[in-house]
Specification:
single chain; about 55 residues; alpha+beta; two-stranded antiparallel ribbon; about 25% helix
């Protein structure tokens, strides 16, 4: 998720970014296992590109 706030009075731009790291632990393993059970690629839904700001 990314949030942007601009304050015209002070000419300040604030950008905040939150990175979701849920696929690093057991939830990622659960998705991988479900993919295998359903006959999908192991990485289906896990290998999406993440934008770097």
């Amino acid at each position: 998720h990314i949030g942007i706030a601009h304050d015209e009075a002070s000419s300040t731009l604030v950008v905040a970014c939150a990175i979701d790291n849920l696929v690093k632990g057991t939830s990622g393993q659960a998705v991988q296992c479900a993919n295998l059970v359903l006959g999908l690629s192991e990485t289906a839904g896990l290998d999406h590109p993440v934008p770097v700001v």
